[in-house]
Amino acid sequence: MRKPERIMDFVRRADEMWFDRKSKMFLPAIRVLSSMSMENWGLKLELFGSLGFSENDILAVFRRAPQVFSVQEQNQGC
């Protein structure tokens, strides 16, 4: 259960990413945003950036398939 002000924060963040509230991906995006800290979000942006994606590319991927950002990094002992 989340406090209403926290939910509104996630909605605000999605709005800042030009997310269409009528999109069927809006609720999954809110779910993904609520599942990670701002620090983890920043790390994911850095990872995608290191792979050659621009900020606009990253946000376009997030708008189309927010679940991609819910994948957790795991240390494989490498």
TrEMBL record:
GO BP terms: namely: DNA-templated transcription termination
The entry lists its GO molecular-function terms as: nucleic acid binding
Q: Does the keyword NADP apply?
A: no
Q: Could you name the domain of life of the organism this protein comes from?
A: Eukaryota
Xref: Gene3D superfamilies: Transcription termination factor 3, mitochondrial
The answer to whether UniProt assigns keyword Repeat to this entry is no
The signal peptide, as residue positions, is none
Keywords from the UniProt entry: Transcription, Transcription regulation, Transcription termination, Transit peptide
Q: Which family does it belong to?
A: Belongs to the mTERF family.
Q: What is this protein called?
A: Uncharacterized protein
Record organism: Morus notabilis
